């Protein structure tokens, strides 16, 4: 059963070595993510599953020890999912979102339970996301999720997707749903609209909604803003 979840954004800019001069601008997001991971540790899970968006062909399960890298961003920095030596089955490199998740876990010294990763492609329908989430919730007696993903990337004219007036209402609806652990509201997020707004969080959030079915978790929104025109949200469910 799902006993706790942390929702965090996954821009590589969270990593100070990647952000370089812009690193201080992300301090508030990093602090909120640290607090969110503290909620996961306090839940004492038997298994932590890190769920994040993945590009075409990058989806699927990643075992503990999977390697991620930020070399593509000009930084000679490697991470491992859950720490420790690389699992023999962990040959594929982590998608960017799970590499950020691995970095967050390393930064907070996670050692509370085994860790697995799940990369989710944006084409996964809400119905299939919910089904995948229900299956994750059955993986152990006490399951925790670290759910990675961003809101829209269209909040300003300088945003990666330029300005789209649908972006702010979309992000506001997602933030309300995450703040209140509103499963129907999360599952009602439109996949086509999310794709148009370049929101990488839609599918991972809907997997969280599926995993939380049958539980009685309360939500709390720790951070919500749109630096660089991209919606970032940090929330906890416990």
Quick summary:
This is Class III extradiol dioxygenase subunit B-like domain-containing protein. With 238 residues, the chain is of the alpha/beta class.
Features:
238 residues, alpha/beta, 7-stranded mixed sheet, two-stranded antiparallel sheet, 8 helices
Describe the 3D structure.
With 238 residues, this protein is α/β, with parallel strands linked by helices. It has 8 helices and 9 strands. It has a 7-stranded mixed beta sheet with strand order 3-6-2-7-1-9-8, with helices on both faces. A hairpin with a 6-residue loop joins strand 8 (219-225) and strand 9. Helix 4 packs across helix 8 (202-211). It is globular. The mean pLDDT is 95.
SSE inventory with pairings:
Blueprint: E1 2-8, H1 16-19, H2 27-42, E2 47-54, E3 60-62, E4 67-69, E5 78-80, H3 96-107, E6 115-121, H4 126-137, E7 143-148, H5 167-180, H6 183-187, H7 191-196, H8 202-211, E8 219-225, E9 232-237
Parallel strand pairs: 1-7, 2-6, 2-7
Antiparallel strand pairs: 1-9, 3-6, 4-5, 8-9
Helix pairs in contact: 4-8
Radius of gyration: 16 Å
Whole-number mean pLDDT: 95
What sort of overall outline do the alpha carbons produce when their principal axes are compared?
globular
Report helical residue fraction.
Answer: 25-40%
Largest sheet: 7 strands, mixed
Q: Got a strand count?
A: 9
Total DSSP helices: 8
């Amino acid at each position: 059963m799902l006993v706790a979840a942390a929702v965090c954004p996954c821009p590589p800019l969270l990593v100070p070595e990647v952000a370089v001069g812009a690193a201080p601008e992300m301090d508030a997001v990093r602090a909120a993510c640290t607090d969110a991971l503290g909620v996961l540790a306090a839940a004492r899970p038997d298994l932590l599953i890190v769920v994040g968006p993945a590009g075409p062909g990058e989806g699927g399960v990643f075992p503990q020890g999977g390697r991620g890298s930020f070399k593509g961003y000009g930084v000679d920095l490697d991470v491992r999912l859950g720490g420790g030596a690389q699992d023999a089955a962990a040959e594929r490199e982590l998608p960017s979102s799970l590499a950020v998740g691995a970095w967050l876990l390393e930064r907070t010294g996670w050692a509370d339970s085994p860790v697995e990763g799940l990369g989710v492609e944006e084409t996964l329908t809400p119905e299939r996301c919910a089904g995948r989430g229900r299956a994750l919730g059955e993986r152990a007696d006490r399951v925790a999720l670290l759910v990675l993903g961003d809101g829209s990337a269209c909040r300003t004219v300088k945003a990666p997707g330029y300005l789209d007036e649908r972006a702010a209402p979309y992000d506001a609806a997602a933030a309300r749903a995450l703040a209140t652990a509103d499963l129907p509201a999360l599952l009602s997020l439109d996949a086509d609209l999310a794709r148009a707004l370049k929101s990488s969080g839609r599918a991972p959030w809907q997997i969280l909604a599926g995993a939380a079915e049958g539980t009685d978790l309360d939500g709390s929104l720790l951070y919500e803003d749109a630096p660089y025109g991209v919606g970032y949200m940090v929330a906890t469910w416990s």
